[in-house]
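Two proteins were folded this term; both appear here.
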Amino acid sequence: MSSIPYSRPGFGLCSVRRILRSAPVPEAPPAAGTDRFPAEETLTRQERRVLRCLLEGADNRQIATALAIAVETVKRHCRNLYRKLDVQNRKQLAERYAGAPSSPG
């Protein structure tokens, strides 16, 4: 496997693959005044994988490489995630998920 340079030191394809195999997928934060996680049920399996990579700090190219999909497909998944989770960008997504509970494996 060839080495691909990444913009974030210490974060490579192996790290992303390890994360995808081992880390639980975070749930959506509960809706105001409820204990439920409604957005979780609307995320596809691939959107959950992209979300996990996003929360680990991967950029679109890194996600595309790790998931063996096109960068444009990653961008589409990101747009869908932002819409479903009611955020505008990665920063808001990270803030919303900071300290959020994780679903079991």
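Next, the second protein.
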Amino acid sequence: MNNFLNEFEERFRAGFLDDLKSILEEVKNEKVYTCAFGTDSDFATLFLAVNTEESLVRHITNMKAQGLCNSKEDENYYRWGFCEYQYGDTTHLNHISKFLYATDNVLDYKDEMIKIMAKVVKETDDVLFNQFGQAKEDIIFFVSMTDDDMAEEFEDRSVIQMTNAKLVDGFLHRYQKKYSLKYYTHFVQVDCFNSQCACPMHRLITHPFHLVYAH
């Protein structure tokens, strides 16, 4: 592993644990169901976004009041669209973004970076979650992008590497697509469920892809 990846792992591990503790303390009376790591198409930024079942209900209620949530599909978007998540504004990952931005050709390391992130998540002790009333095994972890049509592919590939295997299949079928852990096919590009949202993560593209289940 080169110097960049070593430093990335060190910085990510410290930043993730600090952020995680802070957010878990903030939501200790709620049920965390997902934890997403957001980046951009150049992998030059990194931030944490967390949602709870309770914050999801509040957000959907608010969106319905504004006429921005009118169907089950809309509700599904708010559940899985990480740009809609309610926790993570204060992040210790900002210093990592500066580090990534200052690194040449950081995109070349994206696969290794996701593996490192998955490694850190999997190595994070369950006790840390338990002390805040959460269960790590019940939380879906994934990586996504804010500005790229390939966001959903990254979500599907990364969730397999860092999430409890019992939760993975349900996540992969979150948009009613039919695929297995080995092969999946995205559909023809369509608009995001929420026309007010600039996030491209729900544009689906025709793209056969081979998934390798990572342990």
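Helices lie at 3-26, 53-65, 72-80, 94-101, 110-123, 126-130, 151-162, 165-172. Strands lie at 32-39, 47-52, 140-145, 183-186, 207-210. These notes refer to the second protein only.
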